[in-house]
Amino acid sequence: MDADLLDQFVETTGSTMAEAMKYLKLCDNDINAAVGCYFDPTVGRSSGMLGEQEAAVRAPIAAFTDQINEQVAVGRMGKRPSIVFEDGDLGAMFKAPTDISFVGTLETAKIKGRNRKKWLLVNVQDKDVFQSQLLNRDLWCLEDVRDVIERHFVFWQIFRDNLEGEHFVKFYKFTEFPCICIIDPNTGELLKQWGHISHMEFMKEMHDFTSRYRFESGTRRKSFDFYGMSRADMFKIEKPPVLEPPPALYPSSSSSSSSSSPSPPSSPEPDSDPDTTLEPAPAMPEVPADVQPGTVHVTFRLPDGARHTGVFQQDGGCSELYRWLTIYAQMENFNVWTAFPRVLVGDDEDVSVQSVVGGGNRAMLIVSEKE
After folding, report:
1. Of 4, 179, 14, 12, nearest to 80 (Cα)?
2. pLDDT score, position 67
3. Cα 143 from Cα 145, distance rounded (Å)
4. What is the bridge-based pairing of β-strands 119-125 and 334-338?
């Protein structure tokens, strides 16, 4: 049996390896069908065989009042108690949306999002919280919700107490469940977050998000295995910063100017070094409140904690980031990093600014001094 399928099943359901082999065998190694069988107590209740023909269609059940029993018991692998639906019809009603949910880890979900140019929509559920089951019944089963997800998102539903869920919750510091959030698959940035939400509120939020954010295709970002690099290897992938300001900052002596304007010194002071003397820092360019089409607003956090924002063309090279910091922030001998994940941004003209900051039109980059 394929070990990758077993690992995916265990990570998704939190079950044992023996249970993973059992359900995959019953479903002929169909991972989606196996996960659905695991979470649906009505499948194979009596015989345990998935290939058995369904019962004949019966008349509708008359209206009745029922109660959901919260059974306190030790779950699989010693996990804490969870809400158990004993009635088969209730189990089908609260069935997890396995047909639209991505099966895999966070990293593989982000890769799929980048390849398909879609955002990552994550639903973190808690088996002890009934609102988690309500999302399955009242939200994820609706056609208009599914249509929005299929057009704009890679949907990933996990439980907070399995291995992948624990890592995700700890990293993004979630404390209330259920939780719905949108992750940028390019940067891992948490863009939006909600708790239990109604159908109308969800559709409004999705409309606002898809109207405001657009997943740009652009040039694909260079992939560096940052965590596997040595310090020496990190500096090999970057170029030294360009310290020469644009010619426009140094008007020629023949240019016309008013008599009252001070003229630049014709030569450096006797004790100064002409190669190291810097011109006074020019005033920071004005940043418009609204982002213009084709541009991106990048906020730099400097080593002293100060923050400055510049406007850059989306298709401009990353060398413009270094040039801007050199001119307006008077930075020397520095590196630029993405906020999350922390990846070094090289002084490269062939890599666009948009590919580094991701699909949004606003971003933050971290500036650090070289040691």
Report:
1. 14
2. 58
3. 5
4. unpaired
Question: 263: which DSSP letter?
Answer: P
pLDDT tens digits, one per residue of 31-56: 888 887 887 656 544 444 444 444 45
Contacts for 340 with CB less than 8 Å, ≥ 6 apart: 187, 188, 189
Could you tell me the two tokens for 267? Answer: 């030569």
Query: Are the C-beta atoms of 15 and 9 separated by less than 8 Å?
Result: yes
What was the pLDDT predicted at 22?
87
Residues of the chain with pLDDT under 70: 1, 40-58, 66-91, 216-281
- The residue with tokens 């108690």 is 81
In angstroms, the CA 96 to CA 13 distance is: 11
Distance of CA 119 to the CA centre of its chain: 7
Residue 279's Cβ-side half-sphere holds a number of Cα atoms within 13 Å equal to 20
**What is the DSSP secondary-structure string of 165-188?**
HHHHHHHHT--SSSEEEEE-TTT-
Closest CA to 119 of 81, 150, 74, 84: 150
Strand ranges (E), 6-152:
119-125
Residue 186 burial (C-beta neighbours within 10 Å; 0-12, 13-18, 19+): buried
pLDDT per position as a tens digit, 216-239 = 643 333 444 444 555 555 555 444
Q: Residue 124, SS3?
A: strand
Cβ atoms of 38 and 23 within 8 Å: the answer is yes
Please state whether the peptide bond connecting residue 185 to the residue before it is cis, i.e. omega within 30 degrees of 0: no
CA distances from 198 to 64, 101, 137 (A): 25, 19, 11
